[in-house]
Amino acid sequence: MFVGHFPSYRPRRNRYDNATRRLVAENSLHIDNLIWPIFIIEGTQTETDIASMPGVQRVTLDRLAHYVEPAACLGIPALALFPVTPPHKRDEHGTEATNPDNLMCCAARLLKKEFPEIALIGDVALDPYTLHGHDGIIENGYVVNDASAAVLAQQAVNQAQAGIDIIAPSDMMDGRIGFIRKALDTHGLINTRILSYAVKYASAFYGPFRDALGSHTFLKGDKKTYQMDPANSREALREVAMDIEEGADMVMVKPGMPYLDVLWRVHETFGVPTFAYQVSGEYAMLSAAIHKGWLAREQTILESLLSFRRAGAQGVLTYFALEAARLLRQELGS
Ligand code: PBG
């Protein structure tokens, strides 16, 4: 690569003014790259705060349309829905997951009617519905694979029939993408897309999310027998290859910032639509430092999201989505 000799090559020339910096920018962040995760909760007339995720709330169905309205106005393309299930609806097998009138399905029907242009992403896993807080069914102390995948397939069909556009299995059972694709096709749901949480690590960064769902009080043990070991990245490529083979339309790497190297490898190797999840712990970490006045709010949020784009992400699931969209809109207007 020719870089020239000082002083004919001066990299700072291309940083001279804002217009030039914009012209030579290699990557960009746009509202189209944002996916907003939303927690839904039973009951009426309440939005409850989540202590470890300041600014994020659990929303009841009667308030949901109002809550989502600003995202629709800003043109955020997709929402990722996560249900908070009360303890009395949880059981050992996560039966509520396959109830066609569960909170997730009701929310999907409601949002699809109010905002048909927004893509709805449905989380498929059993942890919001089980008493033990694991993503699958437990037999003899072990999360069993194929029996869990069969339930997940039924959960996916119900969600798709209720209006979920993109099924997002976050459970990490082997072969579940194939199971789910087959079940969707059998039910004539051939256009329902699958966004696989293909590379999901057994991470400490999910702590605040488990607070949000209330599953931290339930979870027994850890998820290391199904979620990936943070030590591995070649294995991530095998996971992605498998999910594409089984019919995933898009894949995800999760968590985000601590795994940008993995994101880059997946993007470079496969070139399929690849998403990153800036998870709850990353949100908590940034929010806390911002709150302390140790980091500048707007710049930090946008820089953290742009880093995912640079590392190859098509888009980012982020609890900052609404705020980032507002900031990006302002930038355009200014
Ligand atoms: C569970 C699920 C988790 C997240 C999304 N789906 C947590 C877990 O695996 O325990 C984490 C998201 C976040 O931390 O923001 N199926």
Give an overview in words.
By secondary structure, the protein is of the alpha/beta class. It has one domain (28-331): Alpha-Beta Barrel (TIM Barrel). It has eleven helices and twelve strands. The chain has an eight-stranded parallel barrel with strand order 1-4-5-8-9-10-11-12, surrounded by nine helices. β4, α3 (103-114) and β5 (119-124) form a beta-alpha-beta unit. α3 packs parallel to α4 (145-162) and α4 crosses α5 (176-186). The longest helix has 18 residues, at 145-162. The mean pLDDT is 95. Bound molecules: ligand PBG. Residues 123, 125, 127, 135, 170-171, 206, 209-210, 223, 279-280 line the site of ligand PBG.
Q: Briefly, what is this?
A:
The protein has 334 residues and is an alpha/beta fold. It contains eleven helices and twelve strands.
List the helices and strands and how they pair.
Layout: H1 18-24, E1 34-41, E2 47-49, E3 57-60, H2 61-74, E4 78-84, H3 103-114, E5 119-124, E6 137-139, E7 142-144, H4 145-162, E8 166-169, H5 176-186, E9 193-200, H6 207-213, H7 234-246, E10 250-254, H8 260-270, E11 274-278, H9 280-291, H10 297-310, E12 315-318, H11 321-333
Parallel strand pairs: 1-3, 1-4, 1-12, 4-5, 5-8, 8-9, 9-10, 10-11, 11-12
Antiparallel strand pairs: 2-3, 6-7
Helix pairs in contact: 3-4, 4-5, 7-8
Within CATH, the superfamily carries the name: Aldolase class I
**Rg calc:** 20 Å
Q: What's the level 1 CATH class? A: Alpha Beta
- N-to-C series of helices and strands: HEEEHEHEEEHEHEHHEHEHHEH
The structural class is alpha/beta
Strand count: 12
